[in-house]
Specification:
- The complex is a heterotrimer of chains A (300), B (336) and C (268).
- Chain A is an all-alpha fold and 300 residues long.
- Chain A is built from 13 helices and no strands.
- Chain A starts with 23 loop residues before the first helix and ends in a 6-residue tail after the last helix.
- Chain B has 2 domains: 233 residues, P-loop containing nucleotide triphosphate hydrolases (Rossmann fold), CATH 3.40.50.300; 81 residues, RNA polymerase II/Efflux pump adaptor protein, barrel-sandwich hybrid domain (OB fold (Dihydrolipoamide Acetyltransferase, E2P), Beta Barrel), CATH 2.40.50.
- Chain B contains 9 helices and 17 strands.
- In chain B, the strands form 4 sheets. Chain B has a 6-stranded mixed β-sheet with strand order 6-7-8-3-9-10, sandwiched between helices.
- In chain B, helix 2 crosses helix 3, helix 2 packs parallel to helix 4 and helix 3 crosses helix 4.
- In chain C, helix 2 packs across helix 12, helix 3 runs parallel beside helix 8 and helix 11 runs antiparallel to helix 12.
- With 268 residues, chain C is mainly α.
- Chain C is built from 12 helices and no strands.
- Classes of the chains: A mainly alpha (300), B alpha+beta (336), C mainly alpha (268).
- Chains A and C meet through helix 1, helix 3, helix 4, helix 5 and helix 7 of A and helix 1, helix 3, helix 4, helix 5 and helix 6 of C.
């Protein structure tokens, strides 16, 4: 099971001897190609978000952001993330503990199941909840009877958000917990620590970077989800709109500057995510390497 | 506290780690679980500690059945092969851990904990490193911290899993002597696992030899070295020569290299062999002679004896085992 | 023996069932209520088939572009130190962190006839926004990190001694690259390609703005699903979704197998 997508690597800072690298001309051409590709596909879009947001000046920018509909969309986005991230965090920790510290049949099946939401297209993810709770859905009539509105209301959005951001924390925690082995926890146990004491005093400090990394990724996905939430929300302005949905609404109304202003908030969130991610990655690699050094093989 | 293991068996999948193992550890003794790697010793130790559950059998601690008790409630101290120190805690915090996690009712006040920790660190001569992290310590130092940590909770039994396995030869020797002195001071019932017979001989009061999940012999150090119970034990403690009784080929006896008489003339009960190698280093001369079926026989004689013999490579000699041991009665060989 | 297995395993299974399994089960459950004829009718409708072709075809094209350029980018980032490399390296994950809707409207703006790049291509007769090319462009953006990130660790771990050995045996640089290094990268390269492809097939947010959504031409399958849901044709939506899911699962299995193969090759 892959733990998150592959980490960025720093590469070798020193230069290689001439016989082990390509001739300078080739190096220049390849570098230029790479940079051009990245310029067009990464830098340009990033810059455009902000330039379009500010196209009518700063004043207009801030009034778009302070618009009540935008603020309510912000609140809903934050609410969905505030529920989804902790819920998936608790799940990730439990799944990590069960999978990394114990041996049982069907582990592979379990980790594949945890990866499932990745394989499901966002629109289908949202659709599943409509099938479950929508008017003609399996539990639809039951929900209607009890006056509980799930689809086209906040609960549906929260559920869809939990679904799409579900695997992130678990996928990051499990490899880190597996790398640290079980000996420290066993030592704590023999010394008299309870289960919770063992987890908080021994396990948690060792997995904190992996945990943080997973939380950051989970949060980015939760706040930025569009397709799944699009299906479930009903897009009722001011009530069931998240920030990404609000961007769509403004754009479809040809309020481009407004759409980009709201989009720029999300872009800023993305940049913060990238920064935090990079910082944590460095710590994480050191941790995992140190774990592998001090862990014993299987006892017999 | 005394330990008694009765009829313990354990399988991992299809692999039999322990098969009907029984032995006891009298209170205050230092016992070695000795045997080749993969033989089941560590599994046995972990079962005593409560870190594994046996498939069958019981573990008695101080006469009471502790098999169902969790590792937390057994009052044992465990020192792991690779120390298992809490890598994000200082040396002090590591040693204090067992005292700090106690329930409020039985937890000593912080000052008391601090005193005990420093006492223990002084015992293992590491008090000056109290604020360091495990990553800043050498292997030998880490091992001593692991020991101090295990002793901090005043266990009634100390279990050590290949405690010196990961250390340099010199460090190992020093720590061995130090552990023996420590044990002589505090007389804590201790069981340690090792695959090094020298270590077992030097440290332990008694030795339990476990091979492939089965107890081969259980006795004092003298017992296992001088009075081995079977071929395996004998081979474990040194080179062994196999002789067949010339009159009854089924009867097999075993003799140590220094228990083989070598001479140039045949006699009663001698076996003929041809000298293949002679290594005259130091006070002992080692001779390898090949018997008629090409099996090598290892002989050790003193320098003096060798000079008196005056034998050369390729020469025929006549060997007779002394103090030979027979372990099995194979077949019936009746004199006509 | 550590504590807490029952509690954590229990909660894990409970949460998994609640959030993932039960919702997923509604899909086959719903499909089962449909008659085979109805099912076949829905998924073989020309408009639907056109959407499959677009979703898959564009995803494939984008994955190929990312495979080529991803390799170059990964190589350059690992092997050629240049100022600002760390910054660029961190930026690679932008498509992963940026909400798809933001990507969607931004790419549309750039490639529209009056956009930065669109306006330069228009005189050449190349239309990007509101065409199939636009869909491919959006999918290239979305899948960009996958090939790069799967290749980087492998390239980083390449043993210089192997290259030295090849050089000392007389190989020129080109031969070393194509006969020694490239074969070593194949498994990771393929994995990155497959991941990129899988991601792109079901993509919605970044594509739906730039595509123009013209039926039979630039309509992607996820959009069709939404359309059917809005018409309360749950059955129709489910049918299309099922076909997409089967494709995704097939891809997921292939990816897992590839990663297993890749891991065995590296270890051996």
């Amino acid at each position: 099971m892959a733990g998150g997508y592959a980490r960025a690597r720093g590469g070798h800072a020193g230069s290689r001897p001439a016989r082990l690298t390509e001739p300078p001309l080739v190096r220049w051409v390849l570098t230029a190609l790479a940079l051009l590709f990245l310029l067009v596909f990464l830098v340009l879009p990033l810059v455009t978000v902000f330039s379009e947001a500010l196209v009518r000046g700063i004043g207009s920018y801030f009034s778009s952001i302070a618009d009540p509909a935008a603020l309510s969309a912000l609140r809903l986005t934050l609410l969905a993330a505030a529920i989804a991230v902790p819920a998936n965090l608790v799940f990730g920790v439990c799944a990590g503990w069960a999978i990394a510290k114990f041996d049982f049949p069907g582990k592979q099946v379990l980790t594949t199941l945890i990866d499932l939401p990745f394989a499901v297209s966002p629109v289908i993810s949202g659709m599943l909840f409509v099938l479950l709770f929508g008017r003609q859905g399996v539990l639809g009539p039951w929900a209607a009877e009890h006056g509980i509105r799930i689809v086209f209301a906040v609960p549906g959005i929260v559920l869809a958000t939990i679904f799409v951001s579900f695997p992130f924390v678990a996928r990051e925690i499990i490899p880190v917990m597996e790398a640290m082995g079980t000996e420290e926890e066993e030592a704590a146990r023999v010394l008299g620590a309870s289960g919770l004491q063992t987890f908080f005093r021994v396990t948690l400090p060792n997995i904190k970077w992996g945990l943080l990394y997973g939380v950051v990724l989970c949060n980015a996905r939760a706040m930025g989800e569009f397709g799944a939430v699009s299906v479930v929300s009903g897009k009722i302005r001011g009530v069931t709109n998240t920030l990404p949905l609000h961007v769509e609404i403004l754009y479809n109304e040809y309020n481009f500057q407004g759409a980009f202003a709201v989009a720029s908030m999300l872009a800023l969130l993305a940049l913060v995510t990238l920064v935090v991610k990079t910082v944590i990655e460095g710590r994480l690699e050191t941790d995992v390497a140190a774990s592998r050094e001090s862990v014993a093989g299987e006892p017999l | 506290m005394s330990i008694e293991v009765q009829h313990v068996s354990k399988k991992f999948g299809n692999f039999v780690a322990l098969d009907d193992v029984s032995f006891s550890v009298p209170p205050g003794e230092l016992v070695a679980l000795l045997g080749p790697s993969g033989g089941g010793k560590t599994t046995m130790l972990r079962i005593i500690a409560g870190l594994e559950a046996p498939d069958a059998g019981v573990v008695l601690l101080e006469g009471e059945d502790a098999t169902e008790r969790s590792a937390r409630d057994r009052g044992v101290g465990f020192v792991f092969q690779h120390y298992a120190l809490f890598r994000h805690m200082t040396v002090f915090e590591n040693v204090a851990f067992g005292l700090r996690v106690r329930a409020k009712a039985v937890r000593p006040p912080a000052t008391e904990i601090s005193r005990r920790v420093h006492d223990l660190l002084n015992l293992v001569q590491l008090d000056f490193l109290a604020d360091r992290l495990p990553s800043q310590l050498s292997g030998g130092q880490r091992q001593r911290v692991a020991l101090a940590r295990a002793l901090a909770v005043e266990p009634k039994v100390l279990l050590l899993d290949e405690p010196f396995g990961a250390l340099d030869a010199n460090v190992r020797r020093d720590l061995r002597r130090w552990l023996r002195r420590l044990h002589d001071e505090i007389h804590l019932t201790s069981v340690f696992v090792t695959h090094d017979q020298e270590e077992a001989i030097e440290l332990a009061d008694r030795v339990v030899i476990i091979n492939r999940g089965v107890v081969e012999q259980n006795g004092s150090v003298d017992d296992v070295v001088d009075r081995p119970a079977n071929e395996f034990v004998m081979r474990f403690f040194g080179t062994v020569n196999v002789f067949h009784d010339p009159l009854c080929h089924e009867q097999v006896v075993y003799a140590r290299p220094h228990d083989v008489e070598i001479g140039t003339l045949p006699g009663a009960g001698t076996v003929e062999a041809r000298v293949d190698e002679v290594r005259a280093t130091g006070a002992i001369v080692r001779i390898v002679a090949l018997a008629s079926d090409r099996t090598p026989i290892h002989i050790e004689v003193t320098r003096e004896q060798y000079q008196r013999l005056d034998i050369a490579r390729g020469q025929a000699v006549h060997l007779r085992p002394r103090n030979a041991r027979a372990f099995r009665d194979e077949g019936d060989c009746l004199e006509p | 023996m550590l504590p807490g297995f029952r509690v954590t395993m229990g909660y894990t299974i409970f949460y998994l069932c609640l959030i993932v399994i039960i919702p997923l089960l509604t899909l086959p459950a719903r499909t089962a209520t449909m008659s085979w004829d109805r099912f076949w009718q829905t998924i073989s409708d020309p408009r639907v088939v056109a959407s499959y072709r677009l979703s898959i075809g564009a995803a494939l094209a984008a994955a190929c572009v990312n495979a080529v350029f991803g390799l170059i980018v990964a190589w350059v980032l690992v092997r050629y130190p240049f100022p600002g490399r760390r910054l660029i390296d961190a930026l690679i994950d932008l498509p992963f962190a940026l909400p798809t809707a933001v990507a969607g409207i931004t790419l549309t703006t750039i490639y529209a006839p009056n956009g930065w790049i669109g306006s330069r291509l228009e005189p050449l007769g190349i239309k990007v926004a509101f065409s199939r090319l636009g869909v491919v462009v959006a999918l290239i953006f979305i899948g960009l990190p996958f090939v790069v990130r799967t290749l980087q660790p492998i390239i980083d771990d390449l043993d210089p001694e192997v290259e030295e050995a090849a050089t000392s045996l007389g190989a020129n640089r080109w031969m070393v690259l194509t006969r020694v290094i490239l074969p070593h990268l194949y498994p990771a390269w393929l994995t990155g390609f497959a991941l990129c492809f899988a991601r792109a097939v079901g993509e919605y947010g970044s594509v739906v703005f730039i595509s123009g959504n013209m039926p039979m031409r630039t309509e992607i399958s996820p959009l069709l699903i939404i359309t059917k849901l809005e018409q309360f044709d749950y059955a129709g939506a489910t049918a299309i979704a099922l076909v997409m899911m089967l494709m995704s699962f097939g891809l997921l299995l292939a990816i897992n197998a590839l990663q297993g193969w890749s891991a065995r090759r590296v270890a051996g």
